[in-house]
């Protein structure tokens, strides 16, 4: 569905874009092509058109365009030697890249360049200098920002982590990358990183560096819950393409159980080394005799699907490991991810394992390993040279023989429950066997993130010899005696590891990669999703309870409860309009556990609310919340009902009740719903100036007398802080005057507020004369109250003599502190000062009394303006 929406956004010129995109079309087009490539979809026409479009815009020559074109060409396996040279031309002496040759370097342009040059075989000096520039711009907290003084950016940090990850061993980047990853992990809010596209970028950076899906599963669920009905995310090509790519990144795709069934998943690791264990047999059995067994994969993951809702005993078994048992009960529709399961070593025997190789070529050797002690054991190494054997504790003699090689002998003392590594290198029979001290080397990695661990302490048992791991996680111990070698690896925040080796004289032992497991959690963290069993839609406002701890689900149905200090506990979930659901869990170890909980709608008398939805996720003050409710009668009789709604503040006493009207129906809003009928009601509620925060809209279906609730369902409504003026009008009083007058002029601001919080409006205004010269300028702060109201606010007063007639404009120069829809400023009109002279005369100007004569009256009016 998302792919169809994405393809429908391609324009005639080949670009992928929509009006809601957060970036220019060339960026959204590139991400769309990358998403289609990640999904391995055969969309040659769409890809060709998109590449043609990017090729055309790349002629502009700016690095942002060039880099996207090169990325698209690489997707299509096309040569781009000229483009590579053009990108390199943007590199500056400081190692960074600018948008155009000679432009100042920036973090964003440098990331664009490195991403475009990836895999192009570019000279290492180019990459090394660019990497050095980026490291200089990394903040102490691990983040990156656009400029040194800019706030940390999740987007830039995520891109830097992704772009630099392939070079971590080449340029010793482990510590900087770990800091960047820590910044991202530590800056989640409710599981995500802000906007949809930002969260997708963060997941694209973090998922590839961890083998534990529990680390990002909650965030991925939150992201998927933001998908809209048309299949897109935010109606944005850019966001949708990034989420589609992020969905392909997880190593384990969580598949919801089939209707009416349940599913259980997890990841098994070695308790002491943190290594994911392949081939562990995981069996789920029930009291009714049902049993199903699966095997863990290379990443240690397992999944048990299509389970009937009941109680199960989970048994973990692997050669050389002790048995581990867990119990839990699952309900229909539930998905339980047990997170990391740590399997202990076998308690009665010692396990010896390793790889036999040729000392000259390093290739594996098929050899016979004979072990003598309290019991004699013999085993052969496989074609890959690897072997594993269990022996009783005590002193043992190990002999390794293979045709054409000198035999190798070693002695050791092993203990019950111990795992001992012995990886001998065999020397050809016609050569010499070296003698002398032993060296041991290895690389330490974080078991969850896969990143090298710097600063771990490696100590030799029974001696003072010690070293620490470097930035790439590597350590080397030299001049050690042959025989038993016990190492202890410690690091703050990690579980300490004991490494037991057997080494022959003159050998260089490489123990390979040792994964350090983060220190065991002192408590369990439970998270997951509560959803409608029939529709699969999230249930907002549900309460999930474990003992005295509880959590309410958000609008995506997500919840999280931390600090569960017991390993056996009951989980219950309740929500308005639903039946209570309960589960019991018995864990073997603390950790992060995911439990998805389905809820069954309650339907007394056959009436139920199928769906209650709102049009958006968040609303400002004085906005209409548009809602739609679908009610169904699954009973056998017609029902006369009324629908009503209640809005209640979460954590406040604010409350409003209203009846949902019937379009064209009676004033009492009663209507009849017949058996099998579904009634749809669309209605709205105004947020007015209710304070910002979370509210719950509870919709109920009542009997016609409004005395019995037949069905109810709730939806969460989030009201954001709103500092908004619908109109701002600045003018003077008086608005007109005559030239030459000295007047006291007052400036006023008319405000029309639509806010739900008190705000401080900062306003800068200026009065200028007809020639554009300033007469008066001032900055004022105005306190605006939360309300829907009009007000008149005095700004200031001046005394001034206006010696020039004309229009004096008032300019509003800067407005801050509030969003303003419309700004108007009225001009001050200064009229000319006109003097009128009148001249009156008569002809004749004298007459004799008694005579009858005509008299002509003459009136002459002369207008003149006073001089300034």
Automatic annotation (TrEMBL):
SUPFAM superfamilies reported in the protein's UniProt record:
Carboxypeptidase regulatory domain-like (SSF49464), Starch-binding domain-like (SSF49452), Terpenoid cyclases/Protein prenyltransferases (SSF48239)
What Pfam families does this protein's entry cite?
A: CarboxypepD_reg
Q: Which Gene3D superfamilies match?
A: 1.50.10.20, Carboxypeptidase-like, regulatory domain (2.60.40.1120)
InterPro entries, alphabetized: Carb-bd-like_fold, CarboxyPept-like_regulatory, Terpenoid_cyclase/PrenylTrfase
The protein here is known as: Carboxypeptidase regulatory-like domain-containing protein
* Species for this entry: Thioalkalicoccus limnaeus
